[in-house]
Amino acid sequence: MKKLDMDKIHKKIGExxxxxxxxxxxxxxxxxxxxxxxxxxxxxxxxxxxQGKHFNINHLFQIADIxxxxxxxxxNQV
Length: 78
What we know:
By secondary structure, this protein is mainly alpha-helical. The protein is built from five helices and no strands. The radius of gyration is 12 Å and the shape is globular.
């Protein structure tokens, strides 16, 4: 069985979130607020996988709902 490179997976998911967020015309702050955070740091850090920060499964389902897309689009090409 092929070993999963989780860093690569988290980076790609972050790139996908950024892509679809921008496509929806939403800022990182807008998305952060809709996720219930008062700061942009969670979204900004996870989109870039900064210091290992990444979105969890709950975030992904919330983000998909906020962006009105299927969650599969966020994990596509991983």
